[in-house]
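Structure, all four chains, one model.
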Amino acid sequence: MKKLSPTIRDVAAAAGVSVATVSKYMNGAQRFSAPVEARLKAAIEELGYRSNPLARSMITGRTRAIGLTILDISNPHFTNVVKGANRIALRHDYTLLLVDTDENQARERPLIEALAQRVDGLILSSRMSDSESKWLLDLGKPLVLLRHSDTLPIPSVGIDNRLATYMLARHLLNLGHRQIAYLGFGQARINDERIRGARECLEEAGLTLDVYDAHAPTAHAGEHACSRVMLGPRRPHAVICYNDLIALGFMKEAASLGIKVPQELSVTGVDNVPYGEYAAPALTTVDIQSEKMGELAMQKLIDALAGHADTGHSMFEPRLIVRESTAACG
Amino acid sequence: MKKLSPTIRDVAAAAGVSVATVSKYMNGAQRFSAPVEARLKAAIEELGYRSNPLARSMITGRTRAIGLTILDISNPHFTNVVKGANRIALRHDYTLLLVDTDENQARERPLIEALAQRVDGLILSSRMSDSESKWLLDLGKPLVLLRHSDTLPIPSVGIDNRLATYMLARHLLNLGHRQIAYLGFGQARINDERIRGARECLEEAGLTLDVYDAHAPTAHAGEHACSRVMLGPRRPHAVICYNDLIALGFMKEAASLGIKVPQELSVTGVDNVPYGEYAAPALTTVDIQSEKMGELAMQKLIDALAGHADTGHSMFEPRLIVRESTAACG
DNA sequence: ATGAAAGCGCTAACAC
DNA sequence: GTGTTAGCGCTTTCAT
């Protein structure tokens, strides 16, 4: 277990060259005379030498690692972001360091600060407001945000949240619904945008939106909220949920309450997580291209690392996915 | 962006002490005289000093990072493993380095070798056989395997796969089923164990098991395999799937084929992923405590790092979760 | 094309 | 308690 690995000096000695030569060889920095190259090759093979990335990083100041903080890896949306980011990282020979902050806002800052020291750049998903996020700029590392920031000069990636819920509201309107509720997650920074999208659409039709809060972005929270929404004084005919997880839980509980979806109630989510398709009934939702978001965020960061500055916001376009959880108002 | 951070020497100068003193202070190694401590504190605060973990690691030989390789983060089973592992890592002030090998066996070895150099220990989930895995021992790092190995002296965690499918077969038998098929994933090392469990149970009842292969551990693969299984010459009344994802896809496609689950066909999975509960119908499965597996794997590794050797295999006990996708044979 | 030497930022003896 | 010093394994001028 403790057979300590050979150092560059061991290789130099074995090959009868200097450490500088070995270093250059390892980095493919230049060409070598045939005999030297042969001896180098042999010595490295022989000793099983692999250069120590830590020592290397200390000098070059680059780690070839990228940090990614997410709120909850259990959420398939974030899983897909990770998937996409990882794919691009791998392709460029970067390693992904994942930190799941577990929706724990207090731990966020120290966690990010510690992570920042071990990576060349960071992709961040956070619930912090812009004003709480100023210290990010002092990290001295390239960043990409997984949400839009109006005031921070940090590149970001996201979708048009307003449009996403606008589309859902329009879809429900087209189906003849008039009593539409929104079941949100107030702690999410994008919740307001999603409310606004749905509300705008309804107001154009002279209708109002009833807003509820699920307190968590999870299926369990959706289940919990269902009776409050459906058995309260203003029973809706259609519910737009903050995300698919909440929608999935909501639908399940609605079934328990004896409410038929979609005959008596239409339900929609946002995210297009892979399991909405297998739910009962299959969930109508808006695809937000989570995996592509991860890919682009990583690509932007890698570009930034390569010196291509970019402080813009890239917005993916939402796409409505109509399945079986929405139907004409009965 | 490029404001380079202060070094230990800057702090030493600012506080009028030696670098050694600063180092000791940072590591909380001992007590200090009041004036020195005060100046240290002030200087550190003033400069915003944070010690460079790379330089530190190079000397101590410890990185406080743990590597985790998984086959596919999209699979909720692995997601849960990551979740559990991350929780324990955080608790012990370790960072998790995640590598998703994307089921790509060729890339596995170089990826793991590279990862090994940046961490104190590794948790591995792999499709490699024991004989292909010998080189792992040369990594010189503590390891934990997410599967049992008979021949490698490496601690591991897993579940009793034989028992898992044995229980499912028994459950189906109890419901009166006689024509039972297994839809597996041959590339998984544990597939054979799962086949064996189901087969043993059936053989005790004088029955045989029809075995099919889904070629991938995904919902999509389950969908694809469905017609082959259900419309072939030996149509089963119950299907035990390798995992929940395959089962979810299988159920969906069965519905498309006009086959009613569970009236005409019982379907089961393995893993108890969070979305089986929201499927149509809710999926009968076996809970394998994925999150606990991740927790225990990480705990074992951290124990090993602390010098507590342990080369044993820890086996979690499967638990049958009966939902709505299984019913008495009609 | 190759090598000598000076560090990167820090810790770990060992002095005082 | 506090300081001095010698590296950790590597890259990088700058000679040759």
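Chain B has eleven helices and twelve strands.
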